[in-house]
Predict the 3D structure of the following.
Amino acid sequence: MDIAYWIVAALLAVFYLYAGGKKAAQSKERLAPMMGWVDTVPMGAVRGIGAVEILGAAGLILPPLTGIAPVLALVAALGLVVLQLLAGGLHLFRGEVKETGLNAALIVLAAVAAWLAAAR
């Protein structure tokens, strides 16, 4: 179970560090071709989502790695589930049904990480 957690957590952490870093650092013009929704959301919210993604990635890795408050890994995984549920809802609201596949995959991975974190 421990190895499975680290594999899933590492995959999610790499994804969210990359995606969150882009949202936190790049301009709206650079993000718009990859993420059409940034035109309809205030840039402060986009930056906030990026920060949440980066913190979620850190929460998956650092607490279990250091042994300090390892329950935060479970909290981080559940937070990423909620984040992707909201993201999927935004895509559905915008009529972007085909865009929700990645959201669904990330929900499943984060739910598995939460389950594995709870079982540790």
User: Anything to note?
Assistant: The chain has a mean pLDDT of 96. The radius of gyration is 15 Å.
